[in-house]
Design brief:
The structure holds 2 protein chains of 2 kinds. By secondary structure, chain A is an alpha+beta fold. Chain A contains 17 helices and 12 strands. The longest helix of chain A has 11 residues. Chain B has a two-stranded antiparallel ribbon. Chain B has 6 helices and 2 strands. The chains are: A alpha+beta, B mainly alpha.
Chain lengths: 559, 209
């Protein structure tokens, strides 16, 4: 009976159909007294009238019934936007006639007195729906989106291929491209779901996004503040997609519409142990770190690969659109650092970086603001890139395999003469289970393990744990397969590795005779003998040293 | 719950329908019998005559009023799919505009050509129809298919009588002034509307928004 009544009612009166289907009637845009939202009229029953009038509309289409705010808006602007942005026009200005918060919601052209809204509401209350006249923190609008723009950007689809719900108005992207003010099938009157950024990806095609962890991770938030997904309803990284980091409206970080203004907060609101497994925020709290907190507003995605203004942000080393967890063999970049710029061994830009060290070279290649070398040396070197050149007399094998086999018998497996290592073999977060990479360490220079450099350090496995990761301690301190005076120097004389060895490598004017085996004396400890500080290589584990150290005059000492 | 609401609303609907029936042009906005410019003091004569009517105007029943000769600026919009079929006001719409475009004097009927009283205020839509709901365009199933914001007029009930939009509101499949307005005030609803626009019911008859 009830069912029959229901059917007959629907047939007789079509209006109630609205209740059963997605129409404006059941949305917040029904500002009439029958509206479901908090903002609605006290008595006015007409729905369309708040925006449309059948006669004397202004502007003509779409039979608009509200005044143009006539404002000059503060527009979006960023170094990565190729679109030419003008003041809002077309449908967008119609939306803004409520959503900029300047014109009373009930103020319409066809009525001489404004429609009275409940609760004394006049203009759009402050909140996410009130974009204000500063729309520089909102997705850009009212710009021509054509094939030329798509080509210039490189990560936008050709709009000629837009056949889905996203529509342009006279070739321009407007509010109505993403929003249908009449239907709220998806939240926020969107024309498609934002799950997995479905809507964003209609236009945006970030390179390699398909394989990115931020596209595919099913990680969830553990509920500990801050909420990384405060403007989206989804519960996994994959479902949040772009909205893990980007906020299309009223973004705190205006440039590129980031969730937060401090660049690193956009990463650390997930990489703090609350979503991602590894806690990068904990590393960034350590004494020695790549201090992403120390800079704001300096990093620019279009900046030269060779950093000119000293800074470091997560995105200098990581590309959030591309990063994934694929592994690699040194020196190749792995998935975590794929898709970022670098400087190659010749000092030229390379984009994207192919080898990990190329990313490090962005800053550590005699760039402005870099700290001088930690230890004073006979041969002073300010450019890390040149220290690792495989044409050098000696070097740690970061750019390529070592150039002699003298050390081989002293290496801990699986290291061999042909092994190549990452910068991050030594420079990385300390501690078992810490995330890879040089995020932060309790040891100076972001060393992965302890590497004491103070003179008169008592030798122990812990004192030089970093070196002993690859170099066999037992052999070294017992003069096996190594410098036959190692025990005398390191154990008995308590001389740190750092005093004789310059760990990165020695470039020009170093020579294979005087600077093999990473020998480049620390002049804070070692002084000249007769005006000379010099090591001379005379064959495998044979040589001589002329210098004064710990009061001992080597004039010279040979072995 | 919803059914209960509907039942509550029923009396209101019937009330409106009852009021609608029995209304006439007498005393309505189109009753010009008391206007100073209407020396005949009649009502129908402003538009109609029983004899010697103007038969040069299409769709003009026993027409007695001068017809506008204006060329109108038509509605256009990037989201208006009827642009392909819209024409200069045709059929009965042109009759309406023969007063409402402000170019033909109100008293220019029955052979009078030198009237001096013209329509005023919002009732004068002028010859620029770009800011008025489009008229004289074909509203058919194809248009509704192209614009999901429209109901299919061939199947969707209009709520006017028992017919569809096509059957009760369109003229040769075209939307005209008379689709929304009843010139003779059959309903008694303000602005001579053919059905109530409470809750935008008239708009939502065709617009699936």
């Amino acid at each position: 009976m009830i069912r029959l009544l229901k059917i007959s009612l629907l047939q007789l009166f079509w209006i109630p159909l609205a209740v059963y289907s997605q129409t404006i009637v059941s949305t917040k845009h029904n500002l009439s007294v029958s509206g479901p939202g908090a903002i609605k009229a006290t008595t006015e029953s007409e729905i369309c009238i708040f925006c449309h009038a059948p006669h004397n509309s202004r502007p003509d289409h779409p039979l608009w019934n509200r005044s143009d705010p006539g404002l000059t808006y503060t527009l979006y602007a960023s170094s990565t936007t190729q679109a030419i942005l003008g003041q809002p026009d077309g449908a967008s200005i119609l939306c803004l006639s409520c959503h900029d918060g300047t014109i009373a919601l009930g103020s319409i052209i066809s009525r001489t007195t404004p429609i009275i809204m409940a609760g004394g509401v006049t203009t759009m209350p402050t909140g996410v729906s009130n974009l204000t006249k500063d729309i520089s923190n909102d997705h850009p609008l009212s710009f021509i989106y054509d094939a030329t723009l798509a080509a210039a950007d490189g990560q936008l689809v050709n709009p000629a291929t837009l056949t889905g719900p996203v529509k342009l108005e006279n070739g321009k992207l407007q509010c109505t491209s993403c929003h249908d003010p009449h239907k709220n099938i998806y939240s926020a009157f969107l024309v498609a779901t934002t799950q997995a950024s479905n809507l964003c990806l209609v236009c945006h095609t970030p390179a390699n996004w398909v394989t990115a962890s931020h596209r595919n991770s099913t990680s969830t938030w553990n509920g500990v503040a801050p909420n990384p997904w405060f403007h989206s309803p989804y519960t996994t990284v994959a479902d949040n997609g772009c909205e893990n980091c980007h906020n299309p409206h009223s973004a705190a970080g205006k440039l590129r519409l980031m969730d937060w203004l401090p660049e690193e907060n956009n990463c650390l609101d997930c990489h703090n142990g609350n979503v991602a497994v590894k806690n990068i925020q904990a590393q960034a709290a350590k004494t020695y770190k790549h201090n992403v907190y120390g800079y704001q507003g300096i990093h620019d995605p279009v900046e030269n690969a060779l950093v000119s203004t000293n800074h470091v942000e997560c995105t200098d080393c990581h590309n959030a659109h591309q990063a994934n967890n694929t592994t690699a063999v040194a020196p190749n970049v792995n998935g975590f650092i794929t898709g970022v710029k670098g400087i190659d061994q010749n000092g030229s830009q390379v984009n994207p970086a192919v080898y990990e060290y190329q990313i490090c070279y962005r800053c550590h290649t005699n760039t402005p603001g870099m700290a001088p070398p930690a230890s004073p040396r006979v041969i002073v070197q300010n450019n890390v890139r040149l220290e690792f050149a495989t044409t050098n007399p000696s070097f740690h094998p970061v750019v390529g395999p070592r150039n002699n086999t003298e050390i081989t018998g002293n290496l801990i497996a699986p290291n061999t003469a042909s092994t190549v290592i990452y910068c991050t073999a030594c420079h990385a977060s300390d501690g078992t289970g810490s995330p890879a990479g040089p995020h932060g360490s309790i040891y100076p220079h972001i060393m992965k393990a302890q590497y004491l450099t103070a003179d008169n350090t008592t030798e122990s496995a812990a004192a030089y744990a970093l070196c002993y990761t690859c170099h066999n301690r037992n052999n070294i301190i017992n003069n096996i397969n190594s410098f036959p005076r190692h025990r005398l120097h390191i154990v008995e004389e308590r001389t740190p590795c750092n005093v004789c060895h310059d760990a990165h490598g020695i470039g020009s004017p170093g020579t294979t005779t005087n600077n093999s085996n990473l020998v480049n004396f620390n002049t804070a400890v070692v002084s000249p003998s007769g005006g000379i500080i010099q090591f001379t290589d005379t064959g495998v584990r044979h040589g001589s040293c002329r210098l004064v150290c710990h009061g001992e005059n080597h004039n010279p000492e040979t072995y | 719950m919803k059914i209960k609401k509907l039942l509550t609303a029923l009396p209101a609907f019937f009330f409106l329908v009852n009021v609608g029936l029995g209304q006439t042009i007498v005393g309505s906005a189109h009753d010009f019998s008391a206007q100073t410019w209407n020396t005949t003091q009649q009502i129908c004569i402003c538009c109609h005559t029983p004899h010697n009517a103007d038969i040069t105007i299409p769709d003009a029943p026993l027409w007695n009023h001068r017809s506008t000769t204006a060329t109108f600026q038509l509605y256009t919009s990037p989201t208006f799919n009827g642009a392909a079929t819209i024409t200069q006001p045709s059929g009965s719409s042109k009759l309406c505009l023969s007063c409402h475009d402000g170019t033909v004097a109100l008293e220019n009927f029955g052979g009078t050509t030198n009237g001096t009283h013209f329509i005023t205020t919002v009732n004068n839509v002028g010859t620029d129809l770009r800011n008025d709901h489009p008229i004289s365009f074909v509203f058919d199933a194809a248009l509704a298919a192209a614009d999901p914001g429209l109901w299919n007029p061939t199947t969707h009930p209009s709520g006017i009588g028992t017919g569809t939009i096509s059957q009760t509101m369109l003229f040769n499949n075209k939307l005209e002034c008379a689709s929304c307005h009843n010139v003779h005030n059959g309903t008694g609803i303000a602005h001579l509307l053919r059905k109530t626009n409470v809750a935008s019911a008239l708009c939502l008859t065709c617009h699936n928004k």
